[in-house]
Specification:
homotetramer, about 150 residues, Thiol Ester Dehydrase, Chain A, two-stranded antiparallel ribbon, 8 strands, about 35% helix
């Protein structure tokens, strides 16, 4: 897809907002890629993210927070694909309207690693609701957790 | 149920551990009640927990983190009911083995309020797996979110 | 709530359609009550609904089918409460638009019994999406399974 | 993996039981492949499986039933991979112990088609619990629904 200036701008805004959301800063989430088909977000291990002393593993809530955020991002990028040629303002308003309806998280392995990469893809982009799948791998490419979410997109 | 000393001790340990888990401290989770049938946990609004600037509402991940923690606590208290008369050490080991298998969260209203109360109850206490339902209300008793979780208990 | 003739009519239509849906007939689902706050549906055990020979218990899919149907019914009745005074045709069109977005089912006990009662309630009635909780009990009032669903309502 | 005679026998038993389960017969489920890594099950459209007259589409419960069955099958085949060299009886007993803990189904498109193929894969094979993802496509390879399930495997 050829990217217009508005397209480049909206991706800049998405990245900026992502990293300015207060709780995303607590988590230390940073955008790795806003490729429309293969976006990814990085989570760096920090002592305050630990849920289990003994194992030194991530709190389950850190994992669900990251997957929830990733799902919303994936849902928005899916919508964005259908908005080519639209003005920046319209795209930005659409971003502001993304909201999680529900989320399922499956915890597969303890969240142990120096950093983690969240990825995701859209299962369905609807006019009102999008459905996404998300995955979290650690720095050894082990699958730590997966998620499925439904998001309002309008 | 008549509470033995070991029982009082395990509840003290649960409260202490709960409030010492690093990410629970980030969230500011505190135990309100460890009543075996009606436990509750308090989450106090803080600027760093915000997910949506404009609304000033909780990040979805704060909500899922709180409900996930609550589900594990409820699952453990359900198991504890079946452990009367057992030594403290055995009960504490059981607590350490609680783990989330999976979690569903339904986001019903924006997480707006000065504080929030998470409650929950057991749907089924099994030998290997327990299933729980959780709810999060704000300080005006509005239902913000609900969850359902499956937890390993052995 | 005072019920208009259109209201009585729509409930008649809902009952008729419910029991005419081909797969509901296979399941043998019948409406017990269309009370707006406490609707219930009955499932009668039949040999063809068995999933486990040895136990003689319901197939998991019979349970999920029943809870899914119940969730949609509960979602519609929740919407109906907001439609008082509207013409029958408008209410009927709304019924036709109910659809399941996603569903979680937790299987708590084997589905053993002569019959089963599904109940449910709305957690949130939205303009676009409603969220419901459902429960299935057997004839001894044992809780067999619970569900949570998100439904499109517009 | 080299298949022993016991291995071939257990797959024969799995196929036979699958197609003899009363409610699977109602659904008309047949095993397409028991390849350990890429199993698949076929669902043939029949008038009695309809949930929506107007569209002529599958009842949501037919979809959840099929995905639930598929998840259990995938979970068992995942366990079977770890049981090489064990006697038939031990493998058969393991099959009998598979049970659904919980299931999430996301309905993406109306279930329209002459037949449908369910596939699935294991996300995690545990000693007690396995987690699987499932998908249902129609005869035009459109993705109709996906699922995620947790299954007891011991």
């Amino acid at each position: 897809m050829k990217k217009t200036k508005a397209f480049a701008d909206i991706l800049g805004i998405v990245q900026e907002i992502t990293e300015k959301i207060p709780f995303n800063q607590v988590l230390g989430l940073t955008v790795e890629s806003l490729d429309l088909d293969h976006p990814s977000v990085r989570l760096t291990m920090q002592p305050q993210l630990i849920g289990n002393f003994i194992r030194g593993s991530l709190h389950g809530g850190v994992i669900s927070s990251t997957l929830d955020f990733m799902g919303g991002l994936v849902a928005f990028l899916g919508v964005l694909k259908t908005m080519q040629g639209q003005p920046l303002q319209v795209m930005a308003e659409r971003f502001a309207r993304i909201g999680t309806i529900d989320l399922r998280v499956d915890y597969l392995r303890p969240g142990i690693g120096s950093h983690f990469i969240a990825t995701g893809y859209v299962l369905r982009t609807g006019k009102k609701v999008s459905v996404t799948r998300m995955e979290l791998h650690n720095d050894e490419r082990q699958l730590i957790a997966v998620g499925t979410g439904a998001y309002t997109v309008a």
